[in-house]
Design brief:
Keywords: Membrane, Transmembrane, Transmembrane helix. One of its GO terms (biological process) is defense response to other organism. The protein is α+β, with helices and mostly antiparallel strands. The chain has 2 domains: 1-44; 50-198, Immunoglobulin-like (Sandwich), CATH 2.60.40. Helix content is 28%, strand content 52%. It has 2 helices and 11 strands, in the order H-E-E-E-E-E-E-H-E-E-E-E-E. Strand 3 (86-98) and strand 4 form a beta hairpin. The longest helix is centred in the N-terminal third of the chain and has 43 residues, at 2-44. The protein starts with a helix and ends with a strand.
Length: 199
C-alpha cells in the first residue's frame, strides 16, 4: 500500500519537472531569438525608403465623346538611406488614377539600388481612347478649362532586400503619390510631392 502511494507521488513530480524543463527551454529560446534580432537590428539599423515625385506633365490631352487620349510623364526619385541594405526592384508597375477611374498604366524596367543611393525612376503612361464614366468626363472637362487636373500616381513593385550575401524573399511594395497637380501650361512649375510607402 505504501509502495503504491510513493509511486503515485513520484509520477506527478516527474510530470511537473518535465513541464518546467520544457518551459525553461522555450523561454531560453525566445530570449536568444530576441537577442539575435536586437543585435542584427543594431548592426544594420534599417531605415525607411523615401520616395518623392519630382516631376509630372501631361501632353496631347483630348476629350471626345466620353473618351480620353493623353500622355502622362512622371519622375519618381527613390532614396535608400541605409548604409548596409540594398534593394532589388524586380518588377514595377505604375498607374495614374482620377477619382475611382484608372486612366493609364505601364511597366517600368527593373533595377538594383545600392545602399545610400538615389535612383531616378521615369514613367510614361498613355491613355488611348479610354472610355470614361459620364461623371469623370464632365469633371475632367471642367478641370481642363481651369488649366490643371489633379490625379493620384501609384507604383507597385516586387522588391528584395540584400544585406551582405543574404537576400530576402520578395515583398510587395506600394507607393502612393496623392493629389498630384498637372498643369496644361508648360511655364507653370510642378510642385514636388512626397509619396507614401505601403509595404
Amino acid at each position: 500500500m505504501a509502495s503504491n502511494t510513493a509511486q503515485a507521488t513520484q509520477q506527478p513530480a516527474r510530470h511537473f519537472n518535465l513541464v518546467r524543463c520544457v518551459t525553461t527551454c522555450l523561454l531560453g529560446l525566445i530570449v536568444l531569438v530576441g537577442l539575435a534580432v536586437l543585435i542584427i537590428w543594431l548592426v544594420i539599423r534599417p531605415q525607411k525608403l523615401v520616395y518623392t515625385l519630382v516631376n509630372g506633365s501631361i501632353q496631347d490631352f483630348n476629350l471626345t465623346n466620353n473618351h480620353l487620349n493623353a500622355t502622362l510623364d512622371f519622375v519618381l526619385m527613390a532614396y535608400n538611406p541605409n548604409s548596409k541594405v540594398s534593394v532589388y526592384y524586380d518588377y514595377i508597375r505604375s498607374s495614374v488614377t482620377y477619382g475611382d477611374q484608372t486612366l493609364a498604366f505601364n511597366t517600368i524596367d527593373p533595377f538594383f539600388q545600392p545602399h545610400r543611393n538615389t535612383s531616378r525612376v521615369e514613367s510614361k503612361l498613355v491613355a488611348l481612347d479610354l472610355a470614361l464614366s459620364p461623371s469623370a468626363f464632365k469633371q475632367l472637362r471642367v478641370e481642363k478649362s481651369s488649366g490643371e487636373i489633379e490625379v493620384d500616381v501609384h507604383f507597385k513593385s516586387k522588391i528584395r532586400f540584400k544585406v551582405g550575401i543574404w537576400k530576402s524573399n520578395h515583398r510587395t511594395l506600394r507607393i502612393v503619390c496623392s493629389s498630384v497637380t498637372l498643369h496644361f501650361s508648360w511655364y507653370k512649375h510642378f510642385e514636388v510631392i512626397p509619396c507614401e510607402e505601403e509595404l
